[in-house]
Design a protein that fits this description.
The protein is an alpha+beta fold and about 190 residues long. It contains eight helices and four strands; from the N terminus they run H-H-E-H-H-E-H-E-H-E-H-H.
Length: about 190
């Protein structure tokens, strides 16, 4: 089994956050549509500027043509392990509202918020996610038939965790390397 990489935090944060990490080793166990849609619904409840909800999610389960289409958009470095995910989800950002053509300057932030909600919901269900920016955005837009006002933001690999031993290098070492973050003193400052 892959290690559960619990974050060693300076301050006490909730276990769901401490336990979340991005594995590359996924088990053969399948996900069903209801499980994926539960995770996606969690994303739909994220906050967004003016409650615009500038996101969509397009998913495919392993073993389907849709999965193969999303998989084909991935960068070569993600293919060796992402092919074993139980599902792939394309997160889509809506740059401007279709009816008014008003630009949403916060859509990327809001899609990120929705994605974080999905990661935590998945973990609560013992489903892990690995977010990928390494994919061909144009190809993903074509696969998903996105209109001009929408953009593929990331692709998530979802699944149940498996042994790091089944991964080839360099992925095995990455799977086993302890998690780390910059200390709070380097990322935060108290303003008097």
């Amino acid at each position: 089994m892959s290690p559960i990489k619990i974050a060693n935090t300076q301050y006490e944060v909730i276990d769901l956050i401490k336990n979340r990490w991005s594995p590359r080793s996924f088990a053969e166990k399948a996900l069903d549509a209801a499980t994926v849609e539960t995770i996606l619904e969690a994303g739909s409840w994220a906050p967004s500027a003016n409650n615009s909800q500038p996101w969509r999610f397009i998913y495919a389960l392993r073993g389907t043509t849709g999965f193969d289409k999303l998989l084909a958009t991935l960068a070569p470095g993600n293919l060796p392990w992402a092919k074993n995910a139980a599902a792939l989800v394309a997160t889509i950002g809506i740059r401007e509202t279709p009816d008014t053509q008003q630009k949403n300057h916060y859509y990327m932030h809001d899609v990120g918020m929705a994605t974080s909600f999905m990661l935590l919901q998945g973990l609560e269900m013992n489903v892990y996610a690995h977010i990928m920016a390494g994919f061909n955005k144009q190809q993903a837009a074509e696969v998903a038939a996105l209109p001009a006002n929408e953009e593929a933001v990331s692709i998530l690999a979802l699944g149940y965790i498996d042994s790091a031993e089944k991964l080839d290098e360099p992925y095995k070492t990455r799977e086993l390397t302890p998690r780390s973050r910059n200390p709070i003193t380097t990322i935060a400052a108290h303003l008097d």
